[in-house]
Amino acid sequence: xxxxxxxxxxxxxxxxxxxxxxxxxxxxxxxxxxxxxxxxxxxxxxxxxxxxxxxxxxxxxxxxxxxxxxxxxxxxxxxxxxxxxxxxxxx
Length: 91
What we know:
The protein is α+β, with helices and mostly antiparallel strands. It has 2 helices and 6 strands.
């Protein structure tokens, strides 16, 4: 995690572009996810999100929700990396 995380954090600290890209679906690891709004009225809908919780104690809380928004932020330095933020509604 060291160098890669440190490099990403440094890029984030340098500032981000003011324009952002918003998506109603995204692809990751061979899966496609749609926002809840995009999936309305369609035969299939994949807006469900699961995040395994991890804490420093014995209690772990898993999070389940519906995908509401996907926003991509890009930094000023040209690179192949960008930051992806996902808003979800917990259920």
